[in-house]
Amino acid sequence: MKSGSNLEKVILSGQPAVTAELGPPMGADPHEVIKKAQLLRGFCDAANITDCQTAVVRMSSISAAVLALSEGLEPVTQMTCRDRNRIAMQADLLGAAALGLKNCLCLAGDHQKFSAAGKLKGHPGAKNVYDVDTVQLVGILKKMRDEGLQEGGDKLEAAPKFFIGASWTPMGDPIDFRPINLLKKVNAGADFIQTQGIYDIELFRSQMEKIHKMGLHERTAILGGIIVPKSAMMLKYMDSSVAGVSVPKKLIERMNKAKEAAGDDKKKAREFQEAEGIKLTVELIHQVLETPGVKGVHIQAIEWESAIEGIVKAAGLYPRPSV
Amino acid sequence: MIVGSQKPIEEIWDMVKDSKKVLVFGCNTCIAVCHAGGDKEAETIAMMLRMRASQEGKNIEVKHFSVMRHCEPEYFVPVMEEVKKYDLVLSTACGVGVNFLSERIGDVPVYPGVNTSFYGGVPASGVFTELCGGCGDCVLHLTGGICPIVRCSKSLMNGPCGGTKDGKCEVSDEIDCAWYLIVERMKKLGTLDKLAEIQPPRNWSSSAHGGPRRIVVEHLQELEQKEDNKG
User: Fold this and answer.
1) Which range marks the domain in which residue A95 is found?
2) Closest-CA residue in chain B for A114?
3) What is chain B's mean pLDDT, rounded?
4) Looking at the predicted complex, does its ipTM rise above 0.85?
5) Least buried of A1, A30, A264, A284, by fewest C-beta within 10 Å?
6) Which residues have C-beta within 8 Å of that of residue B39, sequence separation ≥ 6?
7) What is the CATH number of domain B2-118?
């Protein structure tokens, strides 16, 4: 056992793992985190606590993770390379370990430009860091954990025992490099992988075949990413604008049909689409879990944490194993 | 070459409006190639400042002239006495020129007429693109001759992030994803397998993060001393 985290134990038990996502609030109210943690607790093995996702200032991942932990929800701390150099990263992660956090997902992080997308002003003029990249950060965490050494080589008095994760965009450009990308993350020491949202199951499976041939599925636990769709508009947006995500036309058509069935009733249109979105999510979960080499799912119900209970139950993934 | 662009005339005017005698001092190397601060541009800026001064009813004498380079004394020393006659020098050289001249001109202020941007090339007439970050520890042999430090918006060393779409960077669809270019280039060169090697965390001390840099070429110093002794 590398970390003793619940997520690690579930993966080791051979049962399909379920992770979810909790977005910290744009404010200092702990109850926002506590409320969300209560919605997710019991319906996933661990929940990612995002680290200023889309470069928007929010309560920090580590502090929100501690709040979640105190509510009985195991967190996956996220650490992006955008905002901290290796000194700050290691210091924060030592603190995270001391506070009882056991999982850490390493990410490049969205560029600060995204913070001003939509209605927010954000901080598009911020200076980013990128002292190290994701692969290097994974390596730093492994060195801290397994060798008890800082990146620079100094000894740690006590090593932080993290279950180390990394993200992977299996269907991103340049697509033939993506397996090599995963290989590097695994070689660096990624114990688990959470993928970008999957809608095009055929394309995902063809990428996973390559991973299978490389034997990477045996060296890391791949959790397929599922982004719960709320509307036809959201699916169209993700297809056209989100890198590494392609949505097959028939899925968009299904959502469109659900919307049209409501006629002019906007409230109904929303309800019908949400119901169809959950149905679609459950199907995707099954298809992803049936893909050889996949060890679990990472379900992202963005600002819709209340949907997780129904999804996990409908997918037959409830109750979560107690290990 | 060093690429820059002319500062907005309003900003320049704010810098010079309280002076009596202004020299717009052009530089005819890099910054002239990008049409930001060569002799022609210095002349134009001087003309615009004279017009602005007359509109504002201010009595400012604005002249211009240029030298080949602001970054080596041999080019501006011959005109230094003339330059010192002004009470403000607006240098349209890159930031190197402004710094270099400031330290050698005595009490005359040297202000920038140009925003110095990057080291770049000229892929098409009127287009300048950033191609080198001057990081002091070149890795182009590992990446097919395409710089991940400055051409990747996140300076990633081990491959693309998840933000690549249709070969473009997540920051803008006008920016090519450097890693997309690197992968395509290395496929062509038959060296894609090299990219599977993990690049460890970089030592950034060779870049600006290690403090201001200085390179000393000893044999050149010695050569100069010998020539001085002969003379």
Assistant:
1) 6-231+288-314
2) B171
3) 96
4) yes
5) A264
6) B26, B28, B32, B64, B65, B66
7) 3.40.50.2300
